[in-house]
């Protein structure tokens, strides 16, 4: 008897995953949710699974986007998709040597820390290989949702690929693939077992 094992949190890439990818977008008017994003988030929130955003915004380092523009775009994302429990944002670029820009694991680790969960209990959802590498490096479960921008080798290398955000939430909330069986039977509870 295994309980459906819910994740500690689901961490979403922003561009190309939650909203359409408009490179270096600083215009809130151009924010457009991806199909199924609102409902996927609503299902997770109803299930009391924390949701967060882990996003590379190198446009700030490149000077293509001001921090204020970025904040306004993020505010629009919350206006359209509801509040997130955490935002972890890397404003650096390749070559800055930061530890947060995906594929580094820093954003996943930071978001998990803010939410007070282990990265190992997090699911990272993204549209490119960098997202999956960050997940792997942090010890999280990565689920790739390919778009037209996703490279074939990124799909081939992904540990798990979903059709869309609806499929992601189906997988996450009815998880049969989780590596750790939860101890949830009444006898186990009576014996004071816990999965923590
Ligand atoms: Mg993306
Ligand atoms: Zn960074």
From TrEMBL:
Its EC number is 3.1.3.-. It is found in: Cytoplasm. InterPro entries: HAD-like_sf (IPR036412), HAD-SF_hydro_IIA (IPR006357), HAD-SF_hydro_IIIA (IPR006549), HAD_sf (IPR023214), Heptose_bisP_phosphatase (IPR004446), Histidinol-phos (IPR006543). Keywords: Carbohydrate metabolism, Cytoplasm, Hydrolase, Metal-binding. It is an enzyme of class 3 (hydrolase). Gene3D superfamilies: HAD superfamily/HAD-like. Transmembrane segments: none annotated. The keyword Hydrolase applies. It comes from the Bacteria. The keyword Iron does not apply. Belongs to the gmhB family. NCBIfam families: HAD-SF-IIIA, Histidinol-ppas. This is D,D-heptose 1,7-bisphosphate phosphatase. It comes from Nonomuraea marmarensis. The lineage of its organism: Bacteria, Bacillati, Actinomycetota, Actinomycetes, Streptosporangiales.
């Amino acid at each position: 008897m295994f309980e459906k094992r819910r994740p500690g949190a689901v961490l979403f890439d922003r561009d190309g995953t939650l909203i359409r990818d408009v490179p270096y977008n600083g215009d809130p008017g151009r924010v457009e949710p991806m199909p199924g994003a609102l409902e996927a988030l609503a299902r997770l929130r109803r299930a009391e699974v924390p949701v967060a955003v882990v996003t590379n915004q190198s446009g700030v380092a490149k000077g293509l986007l001001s921090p204020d523009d970025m904040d306004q775009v993020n505010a629009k994302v919350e206006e359209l998709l509801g509040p997130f429990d955490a935002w972890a944002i890397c404003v650096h670029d390749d070559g800055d040597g930061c530890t947060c820009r995906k594929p580094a694991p820093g954003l996943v680790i930071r978001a998990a820390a803010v939410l007070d969960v282990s990265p190992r209990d997090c699911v990272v959802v993204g549209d490119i290989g960098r997202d999956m590498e960050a997940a792997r490096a942090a010890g999280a479960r990565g689920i790739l949702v390919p778009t037209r921008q996703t490279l074939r080798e990124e799909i081939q290398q992904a540990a798990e690929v979903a059709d869309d955000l609806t499929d992601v939430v189906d997988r996450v909330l009815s998880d049969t693939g989780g590596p750790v069986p939860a101890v949830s039977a009444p006898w186990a509870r009576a014996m004071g077992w816990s999965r923590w």
